[in-house]
């Protein structure tokens, strides 16, 4: 009888090990500012992975995509969120990384959801990107991914980000405060909608999102193929109508030296409990395994590739 009980206990322990994934360590996950989607969603993901696998993940605030790549490079973090375009800049050593050079110590874990380029204003007379000419506009922190998104979008309409507008360089939270105080006319916010900073503003004021027209979207995608057309539903912020814009992907990256077990635990936990994650954060509803494997600019981590292979999906690795 004791022998049977021991065998049953051993089987239970083996099952538990399989369910929880392989052995795990402690990972720091850099996200973004506390008013953005990266931090809110990243905190949920970190909590779920820590609770349901042998890998402990701690999500922390950060300066966003570029800062997250730099934190991984410095060894201060093991996981980070990046915009798909910024990830490509870092890996290729262009734009944001033109001076410092390419960073190739990271790999892709998964593309999670789309991040919309949101141009928010309280002025109903600003209906087009062209209407931003000569206005006071926040275009993200200097040298940030948001800054280059603003440069791209404004440039598609023939507006120079340095001279065609009166630019300010502010975080999402600071941009919202400046809008409320009438110090700026509009702000670029690049994050998954609905975004905390804009939601907070919409709770007390009527907000508007500036739409892009199809001709300029096509022009932008032709020159910068990491963008895709995207529509933000009006109920995201109680808008008068849907807003048409462009978007990039929100991607989780990892240092190459993070163990395969830890990356496997991270991605397998997330995609095995999507309903539970969705109950905790709306972005969970956008998690899709095929989309997760769609980011082609930076090779995937072997731990992520292992999980995708189990699902019949092949992703590029180094």
Give an overview in words:
The protein is an alpha/beta fold. It has two domains: 24-112 and 251-310, Periplasmic binding protein-like II (D-Maltodextrin-Binding Protein, domain 2, 3-Layer(aba) Sandwich), CATH 3.40.190.10; 116-248, 3-Layer(aba) Sandwich (D-Maltodextrin-Binding Protein, domain 2). It contains twelve helices and ten strands. Strands 1, 2, 3, 4, 5, 6, 7, 8, 9 and 10 form a ten-stranded mixed sheet that branches. Helix 2 (37-52) crosses helix 9 and helix 9 (260-272) packs across helix 12. The radius of gyration is 21 Å and the shape is globular. It starts with a helix and ends in an 8-residue tail after the last helix. 49% of the residues are buried.
Give the rounded overall mean pLDDT: 91
Order of helices and strands: HEHEHEHEEHEHEHEHEEHHHH
* CATH level-1 class of the largest domain: Alpha Beta
- What percentage of amino acids are in beta strands? 15-25%
Total tally of structural domains: 2
Rg (C-alpha, Å): 21 Å
Low-confidence stretches: 1-20
Offer a few descriptive terms:
39% helix; D-Maltodextrin-Binding Protein, domain 2; single chain; alpha/beta; 2 domains; globular
What's this model, at a glance?
39% of the residues lie in helices and 20% in strands. It has 318 residues and is an alpha/beta fold.
How would you summarize the topology of this molecule?
Layout: H1 2-20, E1 26-30, H2 37-52, E2 56-60, H3 65-74, E3 79-83, H4 84-92, E4 106-121, E5 136-138, H5 145-156, E6 166-168, H6 172-180, E7 186-191, H7 196-202, E8 208-209, H8 214-223, E9 228-232, E10 243-255, H9 260-272, H10 274-280, H11 289-292, H12 302-310
Parallel strand pairs: 1-2, 1-3, 5-6, 5-7
Antiparallel strand pairs: 3-10, 4-7, 4-8, 4-10, 9-10
